[in-house]
């Protein structure tokens, strides 16, 4: 039973670490995407259909 408890504790720690790594990657990607959208809106201001093709919806 001690061995099973140690394994469970180890796996719980690994799971928590994996969650932290995932969350950091999502935060980084979110920041990059925000910058990309802002730059795209400026660069393609005269071509709203190109923004829509990137999946960036413009308000009418």
Structure description:
The chain is mainly alpha-helical and 60 residues long. It has one domain (2-53). The chain is built from two helices and no strands. The radius of gyration is 21 Å and the shape is rod-shaped.
Task: Briefly characterize the structure.
The chain has one domain (2-53).
H/E order of the elements?
HH
Residue windows where pLDDT falls under 50 for at least 5 positions = none
The total count of strands amounts to: 0
Total separate domains: 1
Largest sheet: none
Average pLDDT score: 93
- Radius of gyration, whole Å: 21 Å
Give the termini separation: 64 Å
Fraction of helical residues = over 70%
Q: Strand portion, in percent? A: under 5%
Could you state the oligomeric state of the chains shown?
A: single chain
